[in-house]
Write a structure and sequence with these properties.
Oligomer: single chain
Helix content: 10-25%
Mean pLDDT: 95
Number of helices: 6
Number of domains: 2
Strand content: 35-45%
Largest sheet: 8 strands, mixed
Length: 294
């Protein structure tokens, strides 16, 4: 496994950081355009990627630490992500994997008439109380799994449903999706994925932090204990005795500070058996990372 740091700097509030990245790491730094990066128009943003176990990472850490030690406000929260790249053999030998949905669209179901019951005003935890209604014209047509901006609304293609059914994969339930243009007619092309498999809570050996430079801090925690906001500074570890053995399962641990249309979401965990069939079917719209049972 090779691990990389992705970090972004923004002109205006972080001009000296932009200059630092462009001057010190010109080959690893690119300017993102506002459209592709979902950024504020006319705001320059640069993105740099460096290996975690490298002198480049340490240089960036030293820069960030110095700014934070000076209590500079614009460096208390920075945009980072750890990217993990695996060989085919590593993925094939993993007992379980974490599945992340990479295909997103809007509007959310709630904006299209889907009804929710909110149970926490702090993290916006809620339960879907009606059938899912979406503007399916906006659904990515060449992906087999996608989620709306609400984080918890997952739709899958007929190909995905068939892959699960034909291979008798466990832990998945499929419910109708209705199109905003005709909310009484069930979609023939899409179904809502509801995961009934249970993976339990993440184990304490999973390293969480605000970012790679603040490994002992979380960004936020729901006062009622429902969810946290943090980066995964390590691969996910789960307790073996809490996983029910389903081919697809979700954690009881929730992540995200939901507000308005956004709601905290669990992690999706899949078995090696499901991974194999995903590969055979060439399902699109997802990424995979090794997870561990302990």
């Amino acid at each position: 496994m090779h691990e990389f740091l992705m970090i972004r700097a923004f002109a205006g509030s972080q001009d000296d950081f932009v200059d630092f990245l462009e001057s010190h790491f010109p080959e690893q730094t690119q300017v993102l355009n506002a459209r592709s990066a979902t950024l504020i128009p006319n705001t320059k943003c640069v993105e740099t990627r460096v290996p975690v176990n490298s002198s480049s990472f340490q240089e960036i850490k030293t820069f960030i630490d110095s700014k934070r030690n000076q209590n500079e406000e614009h460096y208390q929260y920075i945009t980072t992500r750890l990217l993990r790249k695996y060989s085919a053999a590593e993925l094939q030998n993993a007992e379980i994997l974490r599945l992340t949905i990479t295909s997103h669209f809007e509007p959310s179901g709630e904006e299209c008439g889907t009804i929710y019951e909110t149970v926490c005003n702090h993290c916006n935890l809620g339960w879907q109380a009606s059938a899912l209604i979406l503007d399916l014209r906006r659904a990515p047509q060449h992906k087999d799994i996608s989620e709306t901006i609400a984080w918890v609304e997952w739709i899958v293609s007929r190909k995905f449903v068939q892959t699960v059914a034909e291979n008798k994969l466990t832990g998945a339930e499929f419910r109708p999706v209705f199109d905003l243009r005709n909310p009484t007619r069930e979609s023939r092309n899409w179904a809502q994925l509801r995961v009934s498999g249970r993976a339990g809570a993440i184990a304490e050996s999973t390293k969480l932090g605000r970012d790679p430079f603040s490994p002992s801090q979380l960004s936020w925690r729901c006062p009622l204990g429902h969810s946290v906001v943090a980066q995964f500074l390590s691969e996910v570890h789960l307790k073996r005795n809490e996983w029910d053995g389903s081919d697809i399962a979700v954690t009881s641990s929730l992540f995200g500070q939901g507000r308005n249309l956004l709601r905290p979401t669990p992690l999706i965990i899949i078995s090696q058996r499901m991974y194999s069939h995903i590969q055979d079917a060439d399902l699109k719209g997802l990424s995979l990372e090794i997870a561990h049972l302990i």
